[in-house]
Design brief:
With about 300 residues, the chain is an alpha/beta fold. It is elongated.
């Protein structure tokens, strides 16, 4: 490349990339065709006159996100780089990204459904405002301390300015008769009747093998847990149990105060959040289940799912 070529390529590159001039304007300035200008711009990149650096958006790994979305045929996948695989660190880094995603997807007069638990609590603390929508609690509270599950619902409701529909109830009862009795209570019935109206849902993923689930810890006795594990349960979303292939494993769900698998499948947008090495199998199962449309997870989990 001679000096004249160097000058021309550098000029074209500066005008196009620096000054935002159109290819037609540059062609008129130099008495060239716009196709020749396009070739000169290609040469600028090929010869190193112009170098292009693409930065990932914040902590998000764009390459892993696209690969994971394609692998599980999801509407979207967001993979977040985390400094360690400790559960608290994973939760702390997934939560603000999940909050941003939720904020960007909620539209005026959507009906937002959400579960409870530690991750949802953390996500709710990062949500400052939402488009106006009602907020519906999708399950009873898995934490033995009932009030811990209700704080997130209150935060989302304040952020949206809509009406909140809470479930002042544990997630699972000892038997279906007790659950049925509570379901007849007016305040519980009022919330359960709104579940079919939910248009966007925020849910978390619990792991059964190895255990990392408040449902597993707090509402199943040893015999029931062992029986479900022997049938292949590896994880849960809401109160729906799934095996490693993403197939739903039936159990006595009439004991649960919860959105059903059929209702969850009918929700237009279901954002699932979960990560960490203890949840890899559960995340894979839920991603393969067809119950969710979007997934927020960490980079280590994503690599294992793709390997």
């Amino acid at each position: 490349m001679g000096p004249d070529d160097e000058v021309r390529i550098a000029y074209v590159a500066r005008r196009f990339f620096g000054d935002k001039a159109s290819k037609i304007d540059i062609a008129n300035e130099l008495g060239l065709s716009r196709f020749k200008v396009a070739r000169l711009l290609d040469e600028a990149v090929e010869t190193g006159v112009v170098s292009i650096t693409i930065n990932n958006p914040g902590p998000i790994d764009a390459g892993l996100s696209v690969a994971l979305r394609e692998r599980f045929d999801l509407r979207r996948a967001i993979v977040v780089a985390t400094p360690s695989d400790e559960p608290d660190a994973v939760r702390d880094h997934l939560s603000p990204v999940a909050a941003e995603l939720l904020t960007s997807l909620v539209s005026d007069y959507d009906v937002l459904g959400t579960t409870t638990g530690r991750t949802v609590q953390s996500i709710s603390s990062h949500v400052r405002s939402l488009k106006r929508c009602d907020v519906v609690q999708l399950t009873g509270v898995a934490d033995p301390r009932l009030e811990n599950g209700l704080e997130a619902i209150a935060r989302f409701t304040r952020a949206s300015g809509g009406r909140g529909y809470s479930l002042y109830a544990p997630q699972v009862f000892a038997d279906s008769l007790a659950a049925d009795a509570l379901l007849r209570h007016p305040s519980i019935r009022r919330t359960m009747n709104r579940i079919d109206d939910v248009t966007i849902a925020l849910v978390t993923i619990g792991s059964w093998a190895p255990p990392d689930s408040q449902l597993f810890d707090n509402f199943m006795d040893d015999d029931e847990r062992d029986g479900l594990l022997s049938r292949g349960v590896v994880g849960e979303v809401c109160s729906t149990l799934v095996d490693q292939e993403g197939r739903i494993v039936e159990w006595d769900a009439a004991r649960a105060i919860s959105i059903t698998a059929k209702q969850l499948s009918a929700v237009n947008e279901v954002i699932a959040v979960g990560g960490g090495q203890r949840k890899v199998g559960a995340v894979q199962a839920v991603a393969a289940s067809g119950l969710i449309s979007s997934l927020v997870t960490d980079d280590r989990t994503a690599r294992k799912l793709l390997s």
